[in-house]
UniProtKB/TrEMBL annotation:
Keywords: Glycosyltransferase, Membrane, Transferase, Transmembrane, Transmembrane helix
Annotated transmembrane regions: 21-41
Biological process terms in GO annotation: protein N-linked glycosylation
Domain of life: Eukaryota
MGAT4 A/B/C C-terminal domain residues: 341-469
InterPro entries referenced in this protein's UniProt entry, alphabetically: Glyco_transf_54, MGAT4, MGAT4_A/B/C_C
Domain MGAT4 conserved region, first and last residues per copy: 66-328
Name of protein: MGAT4 family member C
Known pathway: Protein modification; protein glycosylation
Length: 481
């Protein structure tokens, strides 16, 4: 498998910049051509609005709402692809699960990490978590002898998981694949490289298509991955924290096609998309376009990472691949709950570094201009809560002086409405910031009331600007209403 870390991207930026620009342009033109043909066939003319879409595409200035509408109109993208899958191990799931974990694997010239990946998924999950997951392994190699051997190994090692209905092994016959030879050589890639990445796109499309109705959510892994402890619980916390917000893809690793989470109802559309452009570019580039077409402009990636690349040899020609995700934490992962809340501040916000960017696990932050005494950053929870732990970090590595030099953290009760919005009438101070940071545990034993609000209060004016890098809240029991 091919992975690209942020570190590598910086290194290869100059070489790939031109290729990426051409990829964006080329893919955009293909999409628009298909839209044009579809509209022409149905209506015998192109509306003025669609002509504007073509002009916008040519200059890379797409109107997201109109582009998404057109993409949704592509012929039956929400329907499944008609494929006959072979069950090599396991049977159809008797009930829908919370999360499906999908892996596609082919024979490697050197090394094989599939069994270790499956083992990590199950070993890092609790008994209760295992009830909510399904693992689908697609053996995508055309070598039937290799597939039979892998099925035997998987069946022997994970028999109890197959019997329990949480592990399925599938295969798609070669007859269902499109042409893989003589494809156009975009980016001047060698023919065998083009064939490899094009087939990989089709492999993923078939896997996504199979998994579309198995669960509420789907996460893609590669076949050489190690998982963090209780990763499902962490994923569920993140999904809960995103309730009410729009997202297409949530990322739990910065490497390749590892740890990318989707709503299952988007899988048929993604499968069609990969098939439509299977020969154009690598899958990780196509995924960026897919996310953008559905109007998620920015990457939503959570730290620490939940999945780590552990392979040493790539599935392409057995080349060395030592890439690692330096944000991965295996044992000490403790993602906050950050219950739903309304966020507000009276500080002067710099550009688009708004208050919401501090209250999440995403690698973003709030940035305000020099605060004065009495300025605050407020959090009003949607429901009263019991809090066990609070942690606030200000400043960043490259702006170490943009911290809260003098401040306090307070929690409040007795919420009321006002012209300035909902806020609490009384507050209890839990402590002062030290070196720009604040952390407190056992809050539920120190605060006797159910907490409605929390605020960061500036206690002395400062000339430096203020970055609130992260606000993390861990809850204990749900209070009685």
């Amino acid at each position: 498998m091919q992975f690209f870390t942020r570190h590598n991207l910086k290194y290869f930026d100059k070489m790939r910049c031109l290729r990426k620009r051409s990829a964006v342009s080329f893919l955009g033109i293909l999409v628009v051509c298909l839209l044009f043909m579809n509209l022409y066939i149905e209506d015998s003319y192109v509306l003025e609005g669609d002509k504007q879409l073509i002009r916008e595409t040519a200059t890379h200035q797409l109107n997201p709402e109109r582009y998404v509408h057109s993409f949704k109109d592509l012929s039956n993208f929400s329907g499944s692809i008609n494929i006959s899958y072979r069950y090599l191990a396991g049977t159809p799931l008797p009930r829908k699960r919370y999360l499906t974990i999908g892996l596609s694997s082919v024979k490697r010239r050197k090394g094989n990490y599939l069994l270790e990946t499956i083992k990590s998924i199950f070993e890092q999950s609790s008994y209760e978590e295992l009830k909510e997951i399904a693992v689908v392994v697609q053996l995508a190699d055309f070598d039937s002898a290799w597939c039979e051997g892998m099925v035997q190994d998987i069946s022997q090692k994970f028999a109890h998981h197959i019997i329990a209905g949480r592990l399925i092994v599938i295969h798609v016959p070669e007859d269902y694949y499109p042409v893989l030879d003589g494809l156009k050589r975009n980016y001047n890639d060698p023919e065998d490289r083009v064939k490899f990445r094009s087939k990989q796109n089709v492999d993923y499309a078939f896997l996504l298509n199979f998994c579309a109705n198995l669960s509420d959510y789907y996460v893609m892994l590669e076949d050489d991955v190690r998982c963090s402890k209780n990763f499902l619980t962490a994923v569920k916390k993140v999904i809960t924290s995103r309730e009410g917000s729009y997202w297409v893809t949530l990322e739990f690793s910065k490497l390749g096609y590892i740890g990318k989470l989707y709503h299952s109802h988007d899988l048929p559309r993604l499968a069609h998309f990969l098939l439509m452009f299977y020969q154009e570019m690598p899958c990780d580039w196509l995924l960026i376009h897919f996310r953008g077409l559905l109007a998620q402009k920015e990457v939503i990636r959570f730290k620490p990472s939940l999945f780590q690349h552990m392979g040493y040899y790539s599935s392409y020609k057995g080349a060395e691949n030592k890439l690692k995700d330096d944000d991965f934490e295996e044992e000490s992962f403790d993602i906050p709950d950050n219950p739903p809340a309304n966020l507000h501040t009276n500080m002067n916000v710099f550009e688009n570094y708004e208050a919401s960017k501090a209250y999440s696990s995403i690698d973003e932050y709030f940035w305000g201009k020099a605060p004065s005494t009495g300025d605050f950053y407020g959090i009003v929870f949607e429901k009263p809560i019991k809090i066990s732990k609070i942690k606030v970090v200000t400043g960043t590595e490259d702006r170490q002086n943009d911290i809260l030099h003098h401040g306090a953290l307070e929690v409040g009760e007795k919420i009321v409405g006002s012209k300035k919005g909902r806020q609490c009438t009384t507050y209890l101070r839990l402590g002062e910031f030290k070196n720009g940071n604040f952390e407190i545990t056992d809050v539920e034993h120190k605060v006797l009331f159910d907490i409605n609000c929390m605020r960061i209060l500036v206690t002395k004016s400062q000339k430096e600007w203020l970055i609130i890098r992260s606000i993390s809240v861990w809850t204990s029991q749900t209070p009685n209403q």
